[in-house]
Amino acid sequence: MTKSKVVIIDRHPGRSAQTIGVARELGTDQDLIHEPSVGVVGTKGDSQCYMGVAAKVDAIHASLKRRIGKGAGQLKLRLVQPEYTIATSDGIRNGTREMRYSLIGREVTHDALCEHLSATGLAGTIAVVACDKPPVGALAALLEHNQPAIIMSDGPIHPGTDPNTGEKLDIVSAYQVAGNPDAEYRHHIACHACPGYGSCGGMFTYNTMQTFIGVVGMQPLHMVAPPSDDPRRLNEFPHQLVEYLAQMMARGLKPRDIVVRDSIRNAVIVAMAIGGSTNVTLHAPEIARAAGYADFWKEVMTPAEFNHLSQYVVPVLTDARPYGKYSMVDIDQVGGVQVIVRELLEAGLLNGEVMTCTGETLAEQVKRLGTRTADGKVIYSVARPYKPTGGLRVLGGNLSPEFSAILKLAGVEGGLENNLFRGKACVFEGEQDLLTALDKTPGRFHNNDMIIVRYEGPSGAPGMPEMLDPTSRITTLCRERGIVVALMTDARFSGGSVGLVIGHVGPEAGLGGPIAFVQDGDEIVADLDKNELNCTALVDPAILKQRKAAWDMVVAANGGVHPNCGDADTRLLHRARLTAVPATRGAGLHPNREVWVRQPREATRSGFVPKNKHRPETKNAT
């Protein structure tokens, strides 16, 4: 009996000791410890959004392990154990001061994953993501690392059902009854709104961004919409993901080969077509930055072009929550997001030649999937859309000189019948003051009030919280009383917010933007023909100068920070206070407020121009 030969690789024993130990514990070949490494990453948090992630990570890790080795057809690579990043639950924390950590969580995911990718030197990565912010942070880190990588969103939760009425429920349903005086009824809705596990099921921020990541090319389209508990996520998708990653590594296909100007534009257009979350205008600039485009609004898509596409070219194709009826699970049942992509491709609105993580172009992937046509109930055709114009609009004007203000037009329920809202300012110096008023004195709000919530921006809050709690209460108040109450803020909104709500108004109040100078009773005008948001009082240079001087005196007397800004009482919040960039740059945390771009791309533009072949231009905004 002959002894097997031991292969000894002459490498530093100190650096080899733990890699040998890991290989032994994982059951992989010790001879591969100095080969390029591959691994799986995931996100963990304290809500239902993340409860299904670990099982998918384990299934993908097991599938990857089966492909590692020195045999024919195997991947001669070093396998590393799975890594997780932490995350915050938006749904649990809306309406609390802890919500300031939500958008910061995108940055924490980015930093943690960047450390893992770079320090481990991963040559191939599969990321399983959930909730709103970790997917964007993960994609940004993968783009900066720029080695073969692929993403799978874990999937949405099923809608709940009210056993008394049969009405479909979700987390927004629960927020919308927060002001109901019947405590038993409030508890009843809360108990039935979120059964099972998975991320929020409507076309809120999670599903907006998972669709975005699929369309931008970093996630297979057929893996976006299935619910978290779909058996395919454990039994079929892991093998497919490993195969796609192996092909990417063999071809040298990297994230920056996929996430290019036209693929980002495709994803933004699809976000318009699904009536997606306003948060896409925060996340798209950060993704573009990580892909090498220093200024999304100059190098990828200008505000004028964004508005032209949404106003005249791209219709809303989905009857989806929060502005419609159906959930992402329903979209999956009628064929998935690839149906939406097919409709837009055939209408000439997307560039189908961009590359995706499957190794196919976007058009090739849609064709291979045998994508169905629109059913006309959940997903509509471009020729006969659910709504005639796109779901998002950015606004300029004297309250938004940065052209940062964003309106989810798909969710407007009244007040813009002639593309014009004219109302009276009702000012609150922070979200908590507004919530107190909605709780204790809801009768103070009147038809055509424009509520202003300020000092909640990226630097002022700090952290730019989203405001699902107050917007949901205002929506219910307006429906019950048959009035229109609008809201504008330098903070942001959940994708579940509906109504005439305008966020990201910048420059923010904490940095002395015009929103800081508005006073109770000022006339506020939102003009959707001009795409402007204006305070008529601030048109007068003398009034503007007087109010700014008064504001400057208050700031100077308080050590350089306005007293209405939130406390930056942790290192993370202090970091946000000092380094947050404006909403137009993604509201991320970057030193000296400058957006750092690794390997910047040349600011070249392609010749692809979206054109809706199915309908003439229209000026009807709603």
Automatic annotation (TrEMBL):
Region described as Disordered: spans on this chain: 601-622
InterPro entries reported in the protein's UniProt record: DHAD_IlvD/Edd, Dihydro-acid_dehy_C, DiOHA_6PGluconate_deHydtase_CS, ILV_EDD_C, ILV_EDD_N, IlvD/EDD_N
A GO BP annotation: branched-chain amino acid biosynthetic process
Full protein name: Dihydroxy-acid dehydratase
Name of a matching Pfam family: ILV_EDD_C
Dihydroxy-acid/6-phosphogluconate dehydratase N-terminal domain mapped to chain residues: 84-364
Chain ranges of the Dihydroxy-acid/6-phosphogluconate dehydratase C-terminal domain: 377-586
Top-rank taxon: Bacteria
Protein family (similarity comment): Belongs to the IlvD/Edd family.
Gene Ontology terms for molecular function: dihydroxy-acid dehydratase activity
Keyword terms: Lyase
